[in-house]
Design brief:
126 residues, mainly beta, 6-stranded antiparallel sheet, 4-stranded antiparallel sheet, 1 helix, globular
Length: 126
């Protein structure tokens, strides 16, 4: 059994902060459960280009407002508390935080917990 507390992740290698988002990685590849789980904050007034070329990501918004734009089609979907979206087609997208958004993210395959997006918005496959 694994028990973790969000506050215990703060300031560790699994607490990643960037210009547009910050993320506390609660479950990672080394936990060997088949997926990773992140508590992520999208910063207000930001836009992040993302492409999970190697991962399927499910995202559940628990706080805030924003939108996701699919790069290929230009389709835009509003995000607010209670919204779930799944990037099961490895869609390249733009994520915009109108307000600060708190998101619970699940990745398959799991991440190591220290990833940041490369120049194309991709997490490397480890």
């Amino acid at each position: 059994m694994i028990v973790r507390y969000l506050n215990d992740i703060a300031g560790t290698e699994f607490d990643v902060d960037t210009k547009t988002w910050s993320s506390k990685r609660l479950l990672v590849k080394s936990d060997r459960v088949g997926f990773s789980l992140h508590d992520t904050t999208i910063k207000a007034g930001t836009e992040t280009e993302i492409w999970y070329q190697h991962h399927v990501e499910a995202v559940y918004c628990i706080q805030g407002e924003g939108e996701i734009e699919l790069a290929e089609s230009g389709d835009i979907y509003q995000i607010n508390a209670g919204t779930l979206y799944v990037l099961n087609g490895h869609e390249k997208h733009l994520l915009r935080g109108k307000t600060e958004m708190r998101m619970i993210c699940v990745f398959n395959p799991p991440t190591t917990g220290r990833e940041v997006h490369d120049a194309q918005g991709v997490y490397p496959l480890s």
